[in-house]
Design a protein that fits this description.
CATH topology of the largest domain: Immunoglobulin-like
Order of helices and strands: EEHEEEEEEHEEEEEEEEEEEEEH
Number of domains: 2
Radius of gyration: 22 Å
Number of strands: 21
CATH superfamily of the largest domain: Immunoglobulins
Oligomer: single chain
Strand order of the largest sheet: 15-14-13-18-19-21
Shape: elongated
Length: about 250
């Protein structure tokens, strides 16, 4: 269960949510609890879930200052505490909500309006993958058990550009895995590769395995581990050029 622990002021409204879960994301069927407290007596509140944080085309909840009407198929629970406060609760479903925003639009009795939103990011767990460097090439692997429930699929990116992109077992770049994607590209020291799915980001560069050998090497067992960063610090990570490289050198003894 998510506790309402942090508060954000957005365009005059006070928006309460769990800082931990907003930053780390929500896991499948985990309860999302959000509270909207307005700075005015409102005449109406509209709520939508959409990939665009300003889109209210498909409303899941419409409220006046006395009651609410639930629209759509989202199993949504709500509570109008006062005519200045709205509680919303629903189970997180990655296929329906992952990578989208829950949007609130409040209309005050003086006819002014305010917009608020929260990003519905999947929990940062379940990623496996690595980067195998052989000579001047690197093969990048990334999987997640929720891949088949994803709303956007899995992407492997370099410098903000997709070098592998798979969705629903179909790839427009790279190659598919049962729960993700892999691709092979040229490698230079300092390159940073990221795997993305529904707003969660997995740092493949931290999982580099460098193979040096004088003859062909069989890679029958590849290490898989998790190293996650949030969308918010990816840009900072790239700007500062921090690169943590784990090198495993394999020697064959004759």
């Amino acid at each position: 269960m998510i506790f309402l622990a942090s508060f954000f002021v957005t365009q005059g409204n006070l928006f309460a949510a769990s800082l931990t879960n907003i930053s780390e994301g929500f896991c499948e069927v985990e309860l999302v609890n959000l509270t909207l407290t307005t700075d005015c007596d409102f005449s109406g509140i509209e709520v939508s879930i959409h990939v665009n944080k300003t889109n209210f085309a498909d409303l899941i909840l419409q409220c006046n200052n006395e009651t609410c009407i639930v629209d759509g198929e989202t199993p949504l629970e709500y509570a109008l505490i006062t005519n200045q406060k709205l509680d919303v609760s629903f189970p997180f479903r990655n296929r329906e909500h992952g990578g989208k925003y829950i949007n609130f639009r409040t209309t005050c009795q003086n006819q002014t309006s305010h917009a608020d939103h929260a990003f519905l990011k999947p929990c940062l767990s379940g990623f496996t993958g690595n980067a195998i460097v052989v000579g001047s090439n690197v093969t990048l692997y990334c999987e997640n058990p929720l891949y088949n429930e994803s709303t956007s699929g899995i992407r492997i990116t370099y410098n903000g550009n997709d070098i592998a992109k798979c969705f629903n077992q179909t790839c427009v770049k790279g190659n598919g895995l049962p729960n993700g994607a892999y691709t092979k590209v040229k490698f230079n020291t300092g390159m940073i590769f990221l795997c993305r799915m529904d707003g969660a980001v997995f740092n493949l560069t931290d999982k580099i395995i460098e193979v040096t050998t004088n003859q062909s090497t069989s890679q029958s067992s590849l290490s898989s581990s998790t190293s996650l960063v949030t969308e918010g610090n990816v840009a900072r990570y790239i700007r500062t050029g921090i690169l943590m490289t784990f090198a495993i050198v394999i020697f064959h003894i004759y």
